Structures are given as structure tokens and as C-alpha cells.
Automatic annotation (TrEMBL):
PROSITE patterns reported in the protein's UniProt record: TNASE_3 (PS50830)
Domain TNase-like: 31-157
Protein name: Thermonuclease family protein
Gene3D superfamilies associated with the record: 2.40.50.90
Pfam families per UniProt: SNase (PF00565)
Source organism of the structure: Sphingomonas lacunae
Superkingdom of source: Bacteria
Length: 179
């Protein structure tokens, strides 16, 4: 009889855990931050009322990074990426759903502004950021394919992957000048 009660108890516990897992975000919503952007650091990082937030699912050129257009002429893709994110994020309030924190203490999240429902997707669609595959999945793969096909932004010519550029320029300033 005790064995039977133990099995029933285990099944009830398992059912409860499955129920909690299924409800997920409804019971435990992700942390959110809302406020005004104080500063845009580069094409994928901004300061929002005291917190540094890196846009989830994208990698934009570093502020000092240059790319080449279709004719091989260098252009300041990192500065252009920052300027675009700045134009979409500084005109009103931002709301970010935070998903994690990186090793540098930055919060990682998906952010929306009054001008763009998803700033990360907008940057990728404009061709000013990449959507690297995370765990085999690229969150903005369709937006990146659209930008590549239309030759927008980075895709108009040649560029170093932002991660490769960072590795080659370890001494490059991490903070922009004049922001």
C-alpha cells in the first residue's frame, strides 16, 4: 500500500512540475526595463537609465570598424550602425525584456522603441548587424537574408565579422569618442 502511495505522490509531483514548466513565462515573466536611452555605445549596446544593455541575437560592427562598399571604398560601418541605433532609440522610451547577463555585466535583452518593435531585428534588416547562430539557431535569419539579398548595409560590399575584427584589434578603444 505504501508503495502505491509513493508512486501516486511521484506522479502528482511530476504533473505539477510539468504544469509549472508549461506555464513558463506566464508565471515567471522575464525581467523588463523601461526608460530613456542615456547613451548608445555602438550598434548593439545602449545605456538605459543606469543599465548597460546588449541587444540579444545580434552582433554589430564595432564603433571604429570600417567596411568596404561594392566599389571597394572604405566606409565607417561601425559609426553608421551606432548612428542608426541612436536614431531609433533616443526619440522616446525604450522597453527591454531581459534574458541574461553576459560576462561583462551587461544585461542582454530584446528591446523595443516607439519607432521599432524590435531594435535587434531592425538593425539586422537594415544590414547594420548580423544575426549569428546561437545554439544552431539564428534568431533573425529571415531579416539577415533580406538584407543580404538587397545588399543593404554591410552586405553592399566586404566586411570583417565583428567578432573577427574585435579579435584583431584588441587595443582598439571599447568606448566611442564624443558620445
Amino acid at each position: 500500500m505504501r508503495r502505491w502511495f509513493r508512486r501516486i505522490g511521484s506522479l502528482v509531483l511530476l504533473a505539477g512540475l510539468l504544469w509549472l514548466w508549461a506555464l513558463g513565462d506566464r508565471l515567471f515573466p522575464p525581467e523588463t526595463l523601461s526608460g530613456s536611452v542615456v547613451r548608445v555605445r555602438d550598434g548593439d549596446t545602449l545605456d538605459l537609465d543606469g543599465a548597460t544593455i546588449r541587444l540579444a541575437g545580434i552582433d554589430a560592427p564595432e564603433y571604429h570598424q570600417n567596411c568596404k562598399d561594392a566599389g571597394g571604398t572604405p566606409w565607417p560601418c561601425g559609426r553608421v550602425a551606432r548612428a542608426q541605433l541612436e536614431s531609433w532609440s533616443t526619440s522616446g522610451r525604450i522597453r527591454c525584456e531581459l534574458t541574461a547577463e553576459d560576462r561583462y555585466g551587461r544585461k542582454i535583452g530584446r528591446c523595443a522603441s516607439t519607432l521599432q518593435a524590435d531594435l535587434g531585428e531592425a538593425m539586422v534588416r537594415a544590414g547594420l548587424a548580423l544575426s549569428p547562430a546561437l545554439r544552431g539557431e539564428s534568431p533573425y535569419a529571415d531579416a539577415e537574408a533580406d538584407a543580404r539579398e538587397a545588399k543593404r548595409g554591410l552586405w553592399q560590399g566586404e566586411f570583417d565579422l565583428p567578432a573577427d575584427w574585435r579579435a584583431q584589434h584588441l587595443l582598439a578603444p571599447q568606448v566611442d569618442e564624443g558620445a
